[in-house]
């Protein structure tokens, strides 16, 4: 935490106190609004809890007048420090703008405020047999606004897309305090610049999203699973490429490296065979089509290096199969209290090279580094495990991180598939993008936020 | 055509002549580079045929120095006048940058230059059993660069997405003459601002795209079709909503209004029943799943107002079924030589209201106006038919157009689903977007092209 001057100009305080009433807080437990799941924190100067778009405009106008930073906040589940108010200023929490404004089942659309929890939205959509595809592990805690901010994904993104693929339009307040209405209520749109997808993933640095029109998908009738074990990552990687090259898109295709397989067997107690790599593949469909989709995926999963293949066609068997995947996170916590969890992405053909490189880094830095995740998109979670009370281990973990990013980029990959950049990866952005491209991003930032008051210090390196 | 000063500064002429050799043309048949499928034209001052990225940078640098307009051009199949050099200047045609640089079947990616024809790309991908989803009617004539410029779609977009959904990364030269590399080689990406999807659909006003990494899809094993006739548009519209609300996404779902049905029967000689509205639905899948997908779509197509339902499960029957759709364009030409073809979009639930409104406009303006197109996305082609040699008819057609856009916007729709804005719809942009949103688009334009040299006068109203 950096020490910053947390005092606010008296006139700003008076203006926003008058406007927001008890939605304006400059005393009390402010710190909880200054931390997130990355375990970083910084103290904000004030918390604003807007109730409507006009409140948000008033906040931006007041802060802009005094060049006070504004940090938009959902539920604080970011793992990148994206919502930490390092420069002090006003944290705008959308907890009072958490209404589902409209569900339009015939158009497969929902209109929501940013503070709605992802899980609450899914429950509201369920009677319509619709869902909103982004499904991060934190779905029950995280907000749609947070999902929009970091372009959240999840295991089903391989078939249904991540957040950016499932948003049709946005209402947002720019750093100039102007309300813009971008996108449309339609699933096709060639009308002017696509500011919708530009704002998604911009982590509150371009505008504050105050309303979103979401694209919904029909809930599949049934699901079935396959578990495929391979002698090594190369065999599993080849299977992923085969699966993704045939027309039956899996609903999920999750990867575990050998270390993860060992962990869920030995610590998690999961009933799976030992293997060099594991794929957990889900299909969805209806009663008639599902067996054929599973069969197509099974054909593609078979090949050199396959050790074992188990199908789970009824819900109970499928749940048992996924229990192994769910056992992973608790098992990881038993190894080490410290974890740097990165969500790097590579082209699917490079998964074996990525995992081999991660294994080499684990040896070089003498730390457990495990890899698992969303193989169909090449989006692996590389977890560097260490004891945070051991200074030497912590130093080695932090030294391994830039090497992980360098490895990913050398394989034609990129820094983040679904967590975003925040501060955690900000200083690696100049390795992912050349100077002219970063300059173009900075120019876009200046276009939306000429005074640089929106979430300063995030996404783009200083 | 507006008369503009077509002379270029001598030093620019000398610089680009030296750089481009016979790829720099200031005399000869320049006009063919100044027209497009909208039947508009204007005379460019010069044609530049770059062979590489460095050539494009040289063109932008030289033009920027003298504030000379640059208009990027693919194959000139735009129907919106997007590539017409109304302000003179240099038309940059990408016909010499038409290489398929790489196909990576394991990653389902292709890297291409912008001048590649869409159809040539599809033929090159075919041996890999992959395709690039955008499938405009002009696929054999239009370029990938043109598809990127206007966010082209086509009938398969309902399942596979339009251009913007099928691009992973771009190399582009901004109006500052800088080469930027945006996006990634991965199908998930949460790394910084999404400039890729911003450039797609920007119609050459933000940057010149010089290379694209495209996302490919596996070719389905088989296709089958359904033809469903309804008593009226309301019944057909309800069927579209039912079809899109169930989990088996159709590969196409094309709509024809009663006037189109009558045309293809009476003029096109198609063997289809008379009806108030027609849906032509395609499914794809493999031998085992396809019958079940067709059955699911058939169940959803059935309902109040269904007159007739015909299935075509073998390729010959499917081809015969689609012959009716293909008979439409030639039949339209027999009615009137003049046609204003707009690609408006509404939420699917509003298709009946859109078609009813179009019928009312046809009566009011005493002109045939027919509607057909991509119902699954609510993206209908409204064709205002008139005799261009009849001044009164032409005037009525032009007067009906703003009313069509007003109707579309009143139904929560937008101006274009796949053709883009160009000049044809530019002056309606301030009805689709409010002033702050247009100001944000202009600020983005200025960020990429501070001197306003890239395709001036397109997309954004003056």
What does this structure look like?
Chains A, B: InterPro entries: FAD-bd_oxidored_4_C, FAD-bd_PCMH, FAD-bd_PCMH-like_sf, FAD-bd_PCMH_sub2, FAD-linked_Oxase-like_C, FAD-linked_OxidoTrans_Type4, Oxid_FAD_bind_N, Vanillyl_alc_oxidase_C-sub2. Chains A, B: Pfam families: FAD-oxidase_C, FAD_binding_4. Chains A, B: It comes from Luteimonas notoginsengisoli. Chains A, B: This is FAD-binding oxidoreductase. Chain A has 462 residues and is α+β, with helices and mostly antiparallel strands. The first copy, chain A, has 4 domains: 10-93, 2-Layer Sandwich (Uridine Diphospho-n-acetylenolpyruvylglucosamine Reductase, domain 2), CATH 3.30.43.10; 100-218, Uridine Diphospho-n-acetylenolpyruvylglucosamine Reductase, domain 3 (2-Layer Sandwich), CATH 3.30.465.10; 222-328, 2-Layer Sandwich (Alpha-Beta Plaits); 336-423, Alpha-Beta Plaits. Chain A is built from 15 helices and 18 strands. The first copy, chain A, has helices spanning 10-20, 53-66, 118-125, 144-150, 157-160, 195-199, 233-245, 258-266, 290-301, 315-326, 328-335, 351-365, 391-410, 429-432, 435-448; strands spanning 24-25, 46-48, 70-73, 90-93, 100-104, 109-112, 130-131, 167-174, 179-183, 207-215, 217-218, 222-230, 252-257, 277-285, 306-312, 338-342, 369-374, 379-386. In chain A, the strands form 4 sheets. Chain A has a 7-stranded antiparallel β-sheet, with helices on both faces. In chain A, strands 5-6-10-8-9 form a 5-stranded antiparallel β-sheet. A 4-stranded mixed β-sheet of chain A has the order 1-2-4-3. The model of chain A has no long low-confidence stretch (mean pLDDT 95). At the A-B interface, strand 9, helix 6, strand 11, helix 7 and helix 9 of A face strand 9, helix 6, strand 11, helix 7 and helix 9 of B.
């Amino acid at each position: 935490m950096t020490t910053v001057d947390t005092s606010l100009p008296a006139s700003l305080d008076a203006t926003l106190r008058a406007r927001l009433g008890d939605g304006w807080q400059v005393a009390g437990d402010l710190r909880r609004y200054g931390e997130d799941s990355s375990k970083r924190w910084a103290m904000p100067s004030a918390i604003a809890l807007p109730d409507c778009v006009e409140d948000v405009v008033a906040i931006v106008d007041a802060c802009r007048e005094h060049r006070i930073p504004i940090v938009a906040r959902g539920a604080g589940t970011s793992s990148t420090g994206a919502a930490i108010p390092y420069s002090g200023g006003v944290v705008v929490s959308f907890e009072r703008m958490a209404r589902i404004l409209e569900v339009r089942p015939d158009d497969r659309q929902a209109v929501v405020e940013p503070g709605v929890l992802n899980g609450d939205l899914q429950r509201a959509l369920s009677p319509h047999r619709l869902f909103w595809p982004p499904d991060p592990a934190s779905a029950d805690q995280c907000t749609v606004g947070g999902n929009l901010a970091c372009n959240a994904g999840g295991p089903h993104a391989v078939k249904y897309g991540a957040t950016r693929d499932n948003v049709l339009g946005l209402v947002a307040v720019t750093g100039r305090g102007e309300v813009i209405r971008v996108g449309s209520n339609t699933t096709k749109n060639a009308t002017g610049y696509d500011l919708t997808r530009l704002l998604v993933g911009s982590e509150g640095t371009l505008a504050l999203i105050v309303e979103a029109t979401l694209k919904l998908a029909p809930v599949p009738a049934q699901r079935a699973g396959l578990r495929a074990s391979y002698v090594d990552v190369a065999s599993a990687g080849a299977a992923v490429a085969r699966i993704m090259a045939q027309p039956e898109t899996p609903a999920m295709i999750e990867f575990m490296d050998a270390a993860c397989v060992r962990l869920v067997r030995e610590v998690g107690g999961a009933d799976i065979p030992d293997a060099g790599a594991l794929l957990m593949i889900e299909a969805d469909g209806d009663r008639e089509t599902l067996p054929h989709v599973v069969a197509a995926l099974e054909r593609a999963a078979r090949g050199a290096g396959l050790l074992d293949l188990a199908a789970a066609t009824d819900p109970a068997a499928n749940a048992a199969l996924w229990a192994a995947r769910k056992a992973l996170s608790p098992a990881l916590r038993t190894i080490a209290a410290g974890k740097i969890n990165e969500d790097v992405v590579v082209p699917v053909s490079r998964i074996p090279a990525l995992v081999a490189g991660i294994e080499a880094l684990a040896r070089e830095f003498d730390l457990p580094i495990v890899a698992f995740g969303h193989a169909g998109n090449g989006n692996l979670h590389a977890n560097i495990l260490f004891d945070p009370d051991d200074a030497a281990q912590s130093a080695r973990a932090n030294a391994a991180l830039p090497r992980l990013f360098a490895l990913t980029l050398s394989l034609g990959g990129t820094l983040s598939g679904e967590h975003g950049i925040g501060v955690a990866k900000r200083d690696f952005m100049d390795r992912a993008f050349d100077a002219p491209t970063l300059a173009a991003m900075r120019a876009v930032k200046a276009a939306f936020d000429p005074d640089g008051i929106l979430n300063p210090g995030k996404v783009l390196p200083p």
